[in-house]
Queue: 2 jobs
Job 1
Amino acid sequence: MNALPVQDPNTRTALITGANNGIGLELTRRLLNEGWQVAVLIRSSFPADDDAIASAIRGGRLRIYRAELTDFRQLAEALKQIQAAETAIDVLFNNAGGSLPELRFSPQGREMHYELQTVVPYLIYRETKELLLRGSLKTVVGTSSNAFNFTKTFDPGKLARPERFKALTGAYADTKLALSLWTQALAPAEAADGIRLRSADPGPNNTLRKGKKSGLPFPVNYLMRFVFPPPSSGAGRLYDAAVGPYQDKTGVLINSKGVVELKFADRAQQVLDQVDRIYREEFRQLM
Ligand SMILES: NC(=O)c1ccc[n+]([C@@H]2O[C@H](COP(=O)([O-])OP(=O)(O)OC[C@H]3O[C@@H](n4cnc5c(N)ncnc54)[C@H](OP(=O)(O)O)[C@@H]3O)[C@@H](O)[C@H]2O)c1
């Protein structure tokens, strides 16, 4: 086996998706402030007026890879660039996501929430695993949600083609649950390679954006605007899930109460089998 390139032990590197807005942007700012190197996989730009971000880009500490993540061709091209240019990843933050105002379908024909929030994080993990093995922390954090707290029925077989749209508690919630479930099912096998995978609920955050239809029910929209804390709060939760008190845990979901039991755990393997099949049968050939 070839010797792996050695990473400077004093430098930590994160790969963050959805890093240019909201919680991901605050997480990017925090890690840069703490001296991390940050690679980001984003589809649109950082705020133009952020001097610290601009200076980190110029200095090479913030490296940008671009893709509309639900388009497998774009995602594969960006992942090839990451594999070619990055030396190691300590923490992968699979953070991109959000609720849509209706059911939409990806270029591959699956419902968008499922593609973006459940399938894509798995594909990114698979294709960055070699880089994670070269990092020192070997950690993956998926951004989950508490939106599925009241979910009563869950059928993994319907995630790709839901029967109807329901704001926040429908496809959005189901596909966040599915992310946490495959994380739990995959963790034991990956522990053999020293990799730890967790999912984390960033809690409520005001990440409303002008002109963007979020698909949030009116009361949640109201709470977001007037009650929820700024996205630095959620960024703190993701940061703690990665390098805080849960560092030795794997497969777990972390929310404001700490490590919590996942509902529908009996379907975790089925969800993992589904995303793994998509990886093997559709995605790997694009790499
Ligand atoms: N805010 C909350 O209260 C809350 C609560 C629980 C969980 N979360 C989760 O936290 C994560 C971050 O969300 P946020 O609240 O910070 O919202 P946000 O400000 O809208 O940020 C979402 C990020 O994901 C990116 N993204 C969305 N769809 C994408 C796609 N198809 N391809 C590439 N990138 C895409 C966005 O890119 P663009 O800038 O190009 O749109 C943006 O960078 C999400 O997974 C969300 O579900 C949020």
Note: Residues 1-6 have pLDDT under 50 and may be disordered.
Job 2
Amino acid sequence: MITFDSVTKRYADGTVAVDGLSLEAPTGEITVFVGPSGCGKTTSLRMINRMIDATEGKILLDGTPVQGIDPPTLRRSIGYVIQQAGLFPHRKIVDNVATVPYLLGWDKKKARARAMELLERVGLDLKLAERYPFQLSGGQQQRVGVARALAADPPVLLMDEPFSAVDPIVRTSLQEELLRLQAELNKTIVFVTHDIDEAIKLGDQVAVLRVGGRLAQLAAPKTLLSQPADEFVREFLGHDRGIRRLSFISDGGLRLRTDLAVPEDFTGPSDEPWLLVVDGARKPLGWISPDRPSERLPYGTYVKGRDSLRTALDAALLSPSGCAAAVDESGAVVGVATREALDEALAVAADG
Ligand SMILES: Nc1ncnc2c1ncn2[C@@H]1O[C@H](COP(=O)(O)OP(=O)(O)OP(=O)(O)O)[C@@H](O)[C@H]1O
Ligand SMILES: [Mg+2]
């Protein structure tokens, strides 16, 4: 666990970057620091591994003040990932990842084997190991950055906007990769971003900071969205707060119709504007409108009992019918959530 106990950072020119910050980042969880530019996120993060020293207050690592640990020792137990990866340009990828093992005096073979294992773990093709950083895409470089930070298997990982320099699609896959890795590794992660969507997706808890380095709210994403502490947090969460909140509401309340799924040889007639054609295993094939039964249109699915209302809504928006196909874990259709059913569920969610 990382504890901030009334931590203040005043730079030499008098700038108060962090002001009386107190919070805990629990072991094995992802704590996200989010807030506008200049609110002290990077300063807070760097005080943990003593790249910056606090002016007042204490930061404790499992109860021990970091100020009492010499920086090299401290940094061996703390991995650090920054924007644009910060790889050494003249070292091959494998040697970049093995940086800390080399520093720890591992023999070269063991260090390289560890590096290869980590490259695989973060989802990189091992062929890339012999390349140099400039020969990799931005997203690949970020993965290498994560692999390098994990090389010595540190219990703590600090990540400062690690995914903000890549395009949205690569960014999404990096976020998913991080969550997958974290499910295996259970590191204590402090993750800095200014993107509220990223904070909500990755954080077990989210600390919203305001300029001047003051904590506006510390809460689980769901609580943050449903109970913003004040106007600043509400503004920061933005107008999409309602939509985002749906990610935390189960699809359980959605009324399903089972009469709208029809077999491939269906010829009509029907009074329904839309019907979902399914194969022999009840896997969806496409929507038809009964007046044009040969034209199958795109559909979207969500897994009943597992996915959120947000996923169900996204599934409906993917389809010209405006309906979402509810499937079981095997992908077989169990029913259809019509636009009316979605409207009802959204109305209930808005009240809750
Ligand atoms: N070395 C320094 N000397 C003086 N002021 C500094 C120094 N480093 C940072 N600051 C100031 O401290 C405040 C917090 O900076 P910090 O880099 O922690 O913000 P941040 O939240 O990480 O911002 P960003 O989202 O832009 O990365 C800012 O006002 C910044 O200008
Ligand atoms: Mg910063």
Note: Residues 41-42 surround magnesium ion (ligand 2) (CB under 6 Å).
